[in-house]
Amino acid sequence: MKFYMPVLVYQEENVIWNHREELRQYGKKALVVTGRHSSKVNGSQKDLEAALDDQGIKYVFFSEIEENPSMETAEKAAEYGKQEGVDFVIGMGGGSAMDASKAIALLIKNPEETKEVFYQNKPLLALPVIAIPTTAGTGSEVTPYAILTIHEKRTKKSISHRIFPKMALLDSKYLSYAGEKITKNTYADILGHLVESFLHAKSDSYNRMCSSYGMKLWSKLCQPVASMEMTKEDYARLSETGMIAGMAITHTGTSLPHGMSYALTYEYQIPHGKAVGIFLPFFLAIYEDQEAVNEVLSYLDFGSVEEVSEYMKSLLGKVEVSHEDRERFFHSFAADTARHKAYPYSIGEKQLREMYEDALSVR
Amino acid sequence: MKFYMPVLVYQEENVIWNHREELRQYGKKALVVTGRHSSKVNGSQKDLEAALDDQGIKYVFFSEIEENPSMETAEKAAEYGKQEGVDFVIGMGGGSAMDASKAIALLIKNPEETKEVFYQNKPLLALPVIAIPTTAGTGSEVTPYAILTIHEKRTKKSISHRIFPKMALLDSKYLSYAGEKITKNTYADILGHLVESFLHAKSDSYNRMCSSYGMKLWSKLCQPVASMEMTKEDYARLSETGMIAGMAITHTGTSLPHGMSYALTYEYQIPHGKAVGIFLPFFLAIYEDQEAVNEVLSYLDFGSVEEVSEYMKSLLGKVEVSHEDRERFFHSFAADTARHKAYPYSIGEKQLREMYEDALSVR
Fold it and tell me: Is the complex ipTM more than 0.90?
């Protein structure tokens, strides 16, 4: 068994301002990596600028990270960071910005490399990364993963390098700006992380500590998220749950629902959390060790897998694909045996096909 | 809220051998810090020598760490380490050896300092420390604490410097050599860490994740430890529980039972775990928030505080002191208000006196 979680995590109101002095140790100039809009709307950009200005830390922004960021975008940002001579990278936003910031920090630190290095097994260091999540869900602020879109393979995959942020700064006040769809989708993504880690081939007592605790936190948010009547405490709990789910998958990785989601996101632009969430109940249904599934249900405070299914349907709606695409997704994933290793038992084609048929409606 | 646990933890059979290559990154020569006997008896010394020899890492032993190690012993070991020009320190044994190794690593790294620096607030670095616990209990392998005996103050206290081991190597096969008394005392110490962290003034959701999970693991060992009919799996669980309890106190520190135990250990040579354990039930009894106490009892699977009290008595036996000493201990602790800060409410003298009277028999 292995436990390794070297990220210094702070969670509180005004966290950026409170810990601004600690940013100085990472250098004199930062590249701040964000998406196009949200950090301007939710106030995080203003808060970060105030903190960096106060500490005399210079910074430049790269604010062109798209949802499901591509290798090309990460390379472009790294070029900018190299030109600007930055010492560290701050990824601020959702999983896209934080994941991209890790890949960018790798390329800036190794200026002789190009984007191909993302998926090569080379022992390389990266610039220090600071992660500031403004949505809860990916847990990227505490994971070493950086999932990029590989256009030539028409899918998404984590880069080969494990890059932990040095510090994660969580302030749940930003979460309330995310809107209903993002909140619900990321809430489903969190459940994916918790459940897939708990039922993973690599699962042991250490990640189960995080997963089981996270599931109990998650269950307390079922009603507030469904009705979108969220208190300040609910948002803080959501932020924490997403982070703890990140700690869980750091020790195992994700499993079938994540693996199955990527093609759906790539080809049908289904948001990541939704694409994961629609497969989850069917993953619980086919999972061989139903005693473990019952343990999961008890932490989540659901009476049955059917209840999970009903809840996720009401939360996320359905996903419609063509009959041909559903067949294609199924065959493609059935052939991708590397992704099956996360599942601790052998998977029959019949079960896999059932998961696709149950989760995806034909339009 | 803050989470920080940078120690790389491995737990498995033959852990030293399995991870011997990773030791090389810490240097070419190690100071191995142990007690006088146990590492020779339980096989850990032989295992470590084989691993270091295999990797061509040179080493010298300092095997004079006493129970409740003194500042003087740590200074003496550091002198030896300086003479030998070691690059890193391996603390192997119980809490005494591991705690001492941190203080020693600090002094070797700062050769201009003397033992007085242990309790000075200076921002100093230490040599890398590797922790190999051969008893379960202190959790020192994952905490930044190093508790030394201060003879001139007739007590024990953690040094002012927070020194996390770089790596903790846990192999529960060594635990079975510890014998009944050590096993039972350290088992009580673990409960102290779990409960005192959960009910600490600094307690938040992060350390409660570790504490609540650890209490559930702890409860499964009640019968095996009481009867000393321990399986291999029980020893592995004991090892894990002690480590997770260490993660919990890393985030909060300990509370009244630990604070009250130190004088008893110093003046009556009561083993640390036993000295903590006899105060624990009475701590639960006086604790103001009895709802939180009930949550603790539910994790531990005890029906009442009385049940905890009965169990601890049968596990540890009683502690007899003179009437005068009991009064003296009470007055001394009542005046030590710095130690009261761990308690989230105000403590009345009456309650404190009751804890002493209930826990300590007059002989």
Answer: yes
Grade residue B288 by pLDDT with cuts at 50, 70 and 90. Answer: very high
User: Under an 8 A CB cutoff, do A1 and B11 touch?
Assistant: yes
Rounded (10°) CA dihedral B126, B132, B136, B141? 30
Q: Which CATH class is domain A8-174?
A: alpha beta
CATH superfamily, with its number, for domain A179-362: Dehydroquinate synthase-like - alpha domain (1.20.1090.10)
Query: DSSP letters of B304-360?
Result: SHHHHHHHHHHHH--EEE-HHHHHHHHHHHHH-GGGGGGSSS---HHHHHHHHHHHE
Q: Which residues of B touch A251 (CB under 8 A)?
A: none
- Report which residue type is found at A301: D
Contact of A123 with chain B, judged by CB distance below 8 Å, is answered with: no
Whole-number pLDDT of residue A57: 98
Of B4, B205, B209, nearest to A209 by CB-CB distance is B209
- pTM for the complete prediction? 0.95
Per-residue pLDDT, averaged over B248-255, amounts to 97
B332-341 pLDDT per residue, tens: 999 999 899 9
Is the Cβ of A177 closer than 8 Å to some Cβ of chain B? Answer: no
Which CATH number is associated with domain B180-362? 1.20.1090.10
Q: Do B1 and A10 touch (CB under 8 A)?
A: yes
Q: Which residue of B has its CA nearest to A15?
A: B1
Domain extents for chain B? 8-174, 180-362
The fraction of chain A above a pLDDT of 70, given in percent, is 100
